[in-house]
Amino acid sequence: MEKYNISLVVFTWLTQASVGLILLRAIYMRRSSAGDEKIYITGRYILLTTFILLVTGLLFSFSHLNYPRHAFNALNNISTSWMSKEILAEIILVLILLVWYILIGFMIKKIPFLILEVLAGASGIILIYFMIRTYMLPTLEELNTPAFPLSFIITPLLAGSAIIYFFLRKSEPELAIKYKMFFTILFLFSLINHTLFRSFQHDLKELNIFTAFYLAALITSIPSLSSTVKNKNAISDVIFLNLAIICDFLNRVYALTYTNPAL
Amino acid sequence: MKRYGFYIDTVNCSGCKTCQVACQDKNDLEPGLIWRKIIDIEGGKWKAEDGVFSEYPFAYHLSIACNHCSEPLCVESCPTQAMHVTDIGTVDIDKDKCIGCGYCTWACPYDAPRLNHQNGRMSKCDLCYDKIINNENPSCVDACPMRALDFGDINTLREKYGSNRTIFPLASPALTDPNLVIRPHKNSLNASDRNSLIANREEL
User: Fold this and answer.
1) B175 contacts in A (CB within 8 Å)?
2) I need a surface site. Which of A160, A193, B96, B99 has the fewest CB within 10 A?
3) B19 and chain A: CB distance < 8 Å anywhere?
């Protein structure tokens, strides 16, 4: 019996990517030396991307409901259901980002964006926590390993740093290299974590595709690392980052679809 | 609150699936949707005795549905409160609230809630609510030709049959405090992940 749905996998991944973007955007806004106007414009684009990813994720989450007409009932059990809490946190985050983007759009610079930044960051972290708890049910033994929650922490930072790297690659190459280095370290963590996660599983079928992608990403990481050492951005970075992102996504597909279903 | 439960006799169960068919017939379930499933467990080992290898195969059947647990994780997890405990202590689904997300299936260690593709909402054994409030047995119990199923107040069942609730491959009863009593097949005592398997997984 199929217990999970690919749209749910996409939902978790996109939502986590947007949370990572919120957190890493905050670092960009403080570390960039590109000038106020440029930082403001890049920050706005990153925020728009975050919002689009989050809303797309939310739409995907709707598509896994078999009776979406009753979707408003999903907030009925906030006291005991982690899924209700997760949905509430997701809605709050969407609203915060919407207000934030509208205010930026109207160029209301007097509004203290730091408050919205902190609120969005905190809501994002709480949302990730609720997501982890949603899946770590005591009955889902295969997800009750340290590797699973760790993957929900690595993904936001991995996806966030990759997207910001693509934003900065041409305009602010020096800062982009720092995001690339951070990404590479996270990818290695992700690889170790995925290996650990697999070691907890009884059923090792259907894994060749994952291994193949991880190997390809590892191979392409070599020229990318070489360019990083030379303090440059190369075309190999783009290939490496894309492959590594695919690996992380496949890792999620594996975790939520190919693990042994409960009886 | 009074709690109802099932007694399952795995010694006498022949795996004929009459209980499953009776359940489907009574509840008018679409083909493929099963609220009571029959798990066929097979296993065995070889033993070397005086230079001769002897085989020790075994098989037994387990008829299982919703166990209307005293601490139902499905009720706790359901985001809509569609999954609820009824006035007579059984666990049921309110179709007017259910969104068909399937989260109750993840939470249930017995995989009892199933998606009804016809109406897009979750469905499960309601212990034949309409029958038991009229002091009748659930359909599966009455249909069993081997008298391997029984039903009633869980305390009465435990007085009559004992209190065992575990058998391979069921999850630990500590998870949800299920209201069931199992008479274990003698070979189930040796069954484990290492020497046994579910032979009909595709049917479940």
Assistant:
1) 138-139
2) B96
3) no
**Within an 8 Å CB–CB cutoff, is residue A247 touching chain B?**
no
Cα radius of gyration (chain B): 18
3-state secondary structure of B67: coil
pLDDT over 90 percentage in chain B: 78
Q: Chain A residues with CB inside 8 Å of B110's CB?
A: 263
Task: For residue A207, give how far its alpha carbon lies from the nearest alpha carbon of chain B (Å).
Answer: 21
ipTM above 0.95, yes or no: no
pLDDT in tens, B18-69: 999 999 999 999 998 999 999 999 988 888 888 899 888 889 999 999 999 9
In chain B, helix, strand, coil percent, each to 5?
20, 25, 50
CB-CB under 8 Å, A83 with B79: yes
Residue B110 is predicted with a pLDDT of 93
Cβ(B83)–Cβ(B96) below 8 Å? no
Pairs of CB atoms within 8 A across A/B:
97
Q: Compare CB distances from A70 to B80, B117, B193 and report the shortest one's residue.
A: B80
Interface check for B109 against chain A (CB to CB < 8 A): the answer is: yes
Residues of B in contact with A134 (CB under 8 A): 103
**What domains are defined for chain A?**
6-258 (1.20.1630.10)
Is residue A45's pLDDT more than 80?
yes
Q: Output the pTM of the full model.
A: 0.90
Q: How far is CA A94 from CA A73, A260, B134, B168, in A?
A: 19, 33, 50, 46
Kindly list the structural domains of chain B, giving each domain's residue range(s) and its CATH number in brackets, ordered by start: 4-33+66-184 (3.30.70.20)
Q: What CA–CA distance (Å, rounded) separates A129 from A146? A: 14
